[in-house]
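Title: Comparing notes on inverse folding

I've been comparing how different people in this forum approach sequence design from structure. To keep things fair, I'm posting one structure and asking everyone to reply with a full sequence. Here's the target:
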């Protein structure tokens, strides 16, 4: 069971020397306000009393949740190890999220978050769509590329909306993001073999329905942009497409699509009259 971040009583802590709130409850990510970052802590198999890992999200060995004002730059696999002194319980005054937000200012730090996508409603965003749909979702354009003989990296930029959103800010953001993906160990953008291994590992949850060739989908987020990475580890063809979106209109369109999908599912479940 997950709880509303605004309705939980917390304990003030320091994690990796950063101020944070801690609770033994799972916190619903959708209730966490902008400027606050949620992470889950994992305990070991043998010792349930000490956290050994900070992660974006967990399925098993859940120890607790921390909320911070400064985000952590996690590697592509989404977790970092913890030592015995990584988490310190304090005698701070903050017991609610509102008190914590008032005491500690929001951070301007911009990190890159990588997600495996298991949401069919998002699959259309890995492909080119109409100009009206591009405008609604804030599509900047897409990058098409391949690895040549396996280790090279060739790309072509395809503008959307007459390249109107391809600003200097965006160019700096996509350069930083692609370089980060290329540098990460075992990243699907590192080279062809890495992509092939990564897609084989996640194909059960990340396979893109409707793709002409076997493809997997991933999502990369920065503070202002979202990158939908479509990976197709097939030699002799283009092996990746990165569709680029402004984050705010993208997330608005995503919520609208999720709402429509829920209504459609409810309608299908209703008995015929």
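Reply #1:
Here's my take.
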């Amino acid at each position: 069971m997950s709880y509303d971040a605004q309705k939980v009583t917390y304990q003030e802590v320091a994690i990796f020397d950063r101020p944070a709130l801690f609770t033994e409850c799972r916190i619903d990510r959708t209730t966490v306000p902008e400027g606050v970052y949620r992470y889950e802590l994992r305990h070991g198999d043998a010792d349930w009393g000490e956290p050994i890992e900070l992660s974006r999200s967990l399925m098993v060995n859940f120890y607790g949740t921390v909320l911070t004002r400064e985000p952590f730059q996690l590697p592509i696999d989404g977790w970092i190890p913890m030592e015995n002194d990584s988490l310190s319980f304090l005698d701070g005054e903050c017991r609610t999220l509102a008190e914590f937000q008032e005491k500690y200012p929001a951070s301007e730090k911009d990190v890159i978050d990588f997600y495996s996508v298991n949401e069919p409603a998002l699959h259309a965003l890995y492909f080119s769509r109409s100009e009206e749909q591009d405008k609604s979702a804030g599509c900047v354009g897409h990058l098409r590329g391949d690895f040549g003989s396996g280790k090279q990296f060739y790309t072509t930029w395809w503008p959307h909306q007459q390249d109107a959103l391809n600003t200097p800010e965006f160019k700096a953001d996509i350069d930083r993001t692609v370089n980060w993906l290329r540098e990460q160990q075992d990243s699907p953008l590192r080279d062809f073999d890495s992509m092939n291994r990564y897609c084989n590992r996640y194909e059960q949850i990340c396979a893109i329905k409707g793709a002409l060739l076997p493809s997997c989908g991933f999502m990369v987020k920065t503070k202002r942009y979202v990158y939908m990475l479509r990976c197709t580890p097939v030699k002799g063809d283009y092996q990746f497409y990165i569709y680029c979106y402004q984050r705010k209109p993208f997330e608005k369109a995503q919520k609208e699509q999720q709402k429509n999908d829920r209504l459609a599912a409810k309608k299908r479940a209703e008995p015929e009259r």
